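Mods, move this if it's the wrong board.
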Amino acid sequence: MITLCNATLDQLPATVLRPTYDRARLTPGIVHIGLGNFHRAHQSWYLHRLMQQGLAQDWGIIGAGVRAFDAAQRDKLAAQDYLTTLIELDPSGQSAEVVGSMIGYVPVAEGNGPLIAQMADPAIRIVSLTVTEGGYYIDPVTKAFDAGHPDMQFDAANPSTPRTAFGAIAAALRLRRDRGTGPFTVQSCDNLQGNGAVLRQTLVSLARASDPALADWIAATCGFPNAMVDCIVPATGPAELALVHSFGIDDAAPVTHENFRQWVIEDAFCAGRPPWERVGVTFTDNVHGYEAQKIRILNAGHQVIAAVAEVMGMTTISQTMAHPLIHAAFRKIAQEEILPHVTPVPGMTPAQYLDLIDTRFANPAIVDTVRRVAFDGSSRHTGMVLPTVRDGLKAGISVRGLALVEAAWARMCHGTRDDGTTIEPNDPFWPILTHQAQLARATPRQWLDLRQYYGDLAQAPAFAEPFEYWLTMMYRDGMSATLQNYLGAN
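Not the wrong board. Structure tokens:
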């Protein structure tokens, strides 16, 4: 077993790809906040591919986190010189590659002083984030900035010692403005429609609460490119650690991923960028079309199957897709209620994209858990499913299948499966959701009283009536019988 670090790269098995560039010569250009698996399999990999071509040597990534538990990730990565083993899980076989584009990790500290100082360095030209779609402090119904959130109130009152990533970014930009070193691009890599615009709203609104002049400067000078990101990246657990060991590598933080990646970006960078187009990134003014296709079919598709599968006691997404009832319901809901609201993008119709997603979800080599996909439904249903419900109601298209999806989420949040076993908490707002789900068992429409997610949808009979019908049936007859009923309906 070879312990992963710079000194052992030449000792890795010949079948494992590794950096061919001199990592000691890399200099920083990007700070990335939220060093999870997705970033290391996606943005970091694209940059690594450029470096393998002798390009982008001045765009090394400095990792960062703002939560106390991020320190453990920093320790793991620092011990192996910030290298990561990526393992591609293709149905035809597995392959491994060591990625070296990350060259440091900011110490995690209360008040975020080290992070602010790093971002204030003039060498940093991009600050990117993966903080999950629910981490942008926006109201899930109105999409407005949530100025009343305790985190935002704290950062507005303590702009020099903030607790959030956005407060730290504002503080760093204040230093750069005052020193005359110029702005940087702030780049969201999260699954949000219009993620650049959402990020701009959050950062400018927070800055305005304590320094209106700074807010104006950020709005006028910083870049906030919209982007669509795509790659299925499971969480790392014992199976993934065993898998990297099978390649002869001792890596404390390996990442597994599917054999598909996509990155579509708006070219709106205020301080330069790596030439990502040379390694397959698409630059376009029509990011919205790509992200709408992905969020509505892939991300919403995950929510179509996840809660159903959890209630039925399934553990992986590929296992779920192999279940005839769940797979048939996934196809029916997508074809009848989601695809009508998705427009084609160059080279891909919505129907073709659905077939691609079907194949990707069914990949048995990807051990992507139902629990991971079902996590944070309060953000994912609000941002990925309910917009299509509203579009369907507006267009007069049936939303009975999507009402079933929402009923399944309510059923899951009750905290029990059809076999009586317990579903462990799996949402930042689990106590609220569980309480409402328990009320909804007797009176289904009480779930729709969660106005922070559903707004006025409880007053839409075309959605509320089938929701009540499905949730009642789920408790009375079980999830399998409910799916059979849905599939047998005209």
